[in-house]
Design a protein that fits this description.
With about 60 residues, the chain is mostly helical. The protein has three helices and no strands. The protein has helices at about 15-25, 35, 55-60. The protein starts with 13 loop residues before the first helix and ends with a helix.
Length: about 60
């Protein structure tokens, strides 16, 4: 059984590599305009809510 030589990974652009290590834990969310339009609560009676029910459902889904 023969072993193949392992290819060495050489970092040539350290600035880009370090930036990628910093950004590897970030998550980007894209919301449709429909969700953004319904972001704030429109209900005025009773206990005032700062957010809408669609926002609550969205965060439970995440």
């Amino acid at each position: 059984m023969t072993q193949t030589a392992k290819t060495k990974y050489r970092i040539r652009n350290w600035k880009q590599y370090n930036r990628s290590l910093i950004n590897r834990g970030t998550i980007t969310f894209w919301f449709s305009n429909d969700v953004i339009d319904q972001w704030n609560s429109t209900e005025r009676s009773g206990n005032r809510e700062d957010h809408s029910s669609i926002l609550t459902k969205l965060f439970f889904a995440l």
